[in-house]
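cache lookup: miss for this entity combination. No prior model stored, computing from scratch. Input as submitted by user K.M.:
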Amino acid sequence: MSKPYDPTNVFARILRGEIPNKTVLETDHTLAFHDISAQAPVHVLVIPKGAYIDFADFAAHASPEELVDFHRAAASVCDMLGLTGPEGFRAITNAGLHGMQEVPHYHLHILGGRVLGRLVERP
Ligand code: AMP
């Protein structure tokens, strides 16, 4: 059974305007902003405005409007930041303990601007 959404998480606080962020794009249902600890020349987080814990929660429970808005916004971010050329980018999302998710509000990391290495390190 999944845990309930924690409204004190840092991204919920950003959405309430309690913490500043460097916004890249805001739409009706989605906010995209620069990661505070960038792991690549481009590192943007795309989050739904709704209270969803992780990818599975969002994919299962968001409305069609939220789902479309989120993915179109993510695509716009890639375009705005020059990532849609042949060099490409990586879009990843972490969930739970094994995924080492730090912030329990669904977010897509969009990374680019350098070769990013293998997706998963061997332990
Ligand atoms: P994850 O480990 O997938 O949950 O990623 C959480 C991400 O949120 C990390 O890359 C952090 O650097 C980033 N982060 C944490 N706090 C903030 C903040 N206030 N503004 C922007 N990014 C943040």
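stored under new cache key. The pocket of adenosine monophosphate is lined by residues 10, 19, 21, 35-37, 45, 94, 100-103 (CB under 6 Å).
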